[in-house]
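Project standup — Tuesday

K.O.: blocked on the structure for the chain from last sprint. Re-posting the sequence here as requested.
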Amino acid sequence: MMRIVAIQMLVIIFYAEFKRESFNRASMLDDHPAHIAENQSMIMHTNQLFGALHGH
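H.V.: unblocked you, prediction finished:
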């Protein structure tokens, strides 16, 4: 039980960190295609992690 909570905490921290990073990029108006693709794949990966944690 504690392991699941620890994993969720890590994912939440990671996700918050990523959101901050992508916000910083957006504020610099960095719309380089590689970065857009990188952000999209990261969002997909995060969604998959959340899905796996919640058993979908």
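K.O.: great, moving the ticket to review. Residues 11 and 50 are 8 Å apart (CA to CA). Residues 1-55 form one domain.
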